[in-house]
Design brief:
- By secondary structure, the chain is of the alpha/beta class.
- The protein has one domain: Metallo-beta-lactamase, Chain A (4-Layer Sandwich), CATH 3.60.15.10.
- About 35% of the residues lie in helices and about 20% in strands.
- The strands form three sheets. The protein has a seven-stranded mixed beta sheet with strand order 1-2-3-4-5-6-7. A six-stranded mixed beta sheet has the order 8-9-10-11-14-15, covered by helices on one side. A two-stranded antiparallel ribbon has the order 12-13.
- Helix 1 links the parallel strand 4 and strand 5.
- Helix 7 crosses helix 10.
- The longest helix is centred in the C-terminal third of the chain and has 24 residues.
- The protein starts with a strand and ends with a helix.
- About 45% of the residues are buried.
- The mean pLDDT is about 95.
Amino acid sequence: MMSYDSISEHIVLIDAPFQGKLGVLGTYLIQGETSVIVDPGPTVSIPHIEKSLRALGVSGENLLFIAPTHIHLDHSAGSWRLMQAYPKTRLLVHPRGSSHMKDPRKLEAGARSLFGDAVSEYGEIKGVPVPMVIESKDNEEIDLNGVTMKVIWTPGHSSHHQCLYVPEDRTLILGDAGGRYDPMFGIVTPTTPPPFNPEKAMDSLDQLISLRPEKACYSHFGFTNNAVQRLEAHKNQILLWSRIVSESLEDQLTPKEILTRITANDSDTARMRNDHVERSPMISLMGFIRYHEWKSTV
């Protein structure tokens, strides 16, 4: 079970199953004469990614980079395994995440503190050899011989987040900077586990909106043709959640009570599917709570 779909002239969405389910993580292939794979996913997904790359004509000679949008394990943990299959390929990662890709022990420990044993579902977690890691630069443009890929640093969801933009296609690969998209219901909801910074997230969204993209591609999951509208709506959603959390903490509400207040004011969140620990709105809420708790002390 596996699928891939052409999103635009130069971008393909690869949907590798996770725990037998499709629509969990979108892996994106940007193709010119050379190629980049964005968000390869966890190690258990890599055999499916390799099969898709072979079907799409990607060889070890023309896969230039593996580029995680950020180093969270569901996006990046299989990088080491894919690089074994493509030994000439290099990892293009935000500088704040590069050390953790080389030695992921702290990253894994942090994930287990949030998600517990669910992390084991990702498969083996190993580091990428140091010489194979290249740190990205903000606003750098990479020529793939036929198409350009622009790297845009977008802190907020994490300090090490980067989006990839293909100007020829007016298409933006968001990672988690634009929230979680549910194509079944056409809604976007926050994906904001701690540590999360809503102010930086909104600044990053402003930067992405200024590009005037036409299509937005989400890691979780799928794509939309009304990119600017979705990005603006998500910025307003973050502003709403942030205001409610700040006021609710002053009112000394519990997290459960805060979530009830949010769902009463945010119809998208009220309709959010919650069928996996990482989709839990409470995990996203804790990112806002911890940020506002920290902010009240500085």
